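Input/output pair, single chain:
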Amino acid sequence: SENIEYAEPDYIQKKCSVRNDIYFPFQWNLFNLNVPSSWNISSGSDTVIIAVIDTGLKFDHPEFTGKIVQGYDFISEPESGNDGDGIDPDPDDSGDAISSSGNSYHGTHIAGIIAANTNNAEGISGISYNCKIMPIRALGRYGGLTSDVMESVKFAAGLDNSSGIKPVIAAKIINMSFGSEFYSRAFEELLDTIDDMNITVVCAGGNENSQSIFYPAGYQQVISVAAVDYDNKKTFYSNYGSYIDICAPGGDMTVDLNKDNYPDGIMEVFPKSI
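Output:
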């Protein structure tokens, strides 16, 4: 009709998804990333396995019930392992403390951010909470050897490795939230192989407030992530530079920019600030 300028569907608008986890309101990082809106599209899939190469995982934590697939402990030096032996099938997060400095349980923290059980009226909300976690232990009391990390990557990808075993199903994503300034040709060549297998590798960009290249984030085959605060500005500690691909909330315990009366750290499965 000449009297109609245009027509379009009368779409139904829906509220963004929220979860009932008790610390969800304090997870400002999820809101900065628009995660609640993304949950209307996807919250991950139980067919996707995310390997977290780090200090291991606390298996008895309720936030990981039903979420864990076979992992491994690749720390080859018993003194660093903090569990009395070398490599073994148990990637329990026994801590990384040196003397009385305190355990970080860093691997457990990272795994929780990625895929903690969600909408269970306790703890935090995980970002891709329907995905599975493959816990792999490569960092101990003194960090981790590059060779141990490489064996961990091989295991996650289902390649031959020093354990002599392979996972039933390989990981689709590998996360490494650690690194150093040291380049390794062998590591880069391994990542070439991983890239050819269409496995996504995500690495922390480093916390030295430097633009010097930090590895493994500095390898071209990975997604390197720098840290921003509540205002989406670079945190005081985050590395920066041309090797960084994206930024994500990294937290800053020295400020309370969102005025919720708690430091702006990233809420973890072992909450300390509430």
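Residues 146-157 form the longest helix (12 residues). Strands lie at 49-54, 72-73, 132-137, 173-176, 200-204, 223-228, 246-249.
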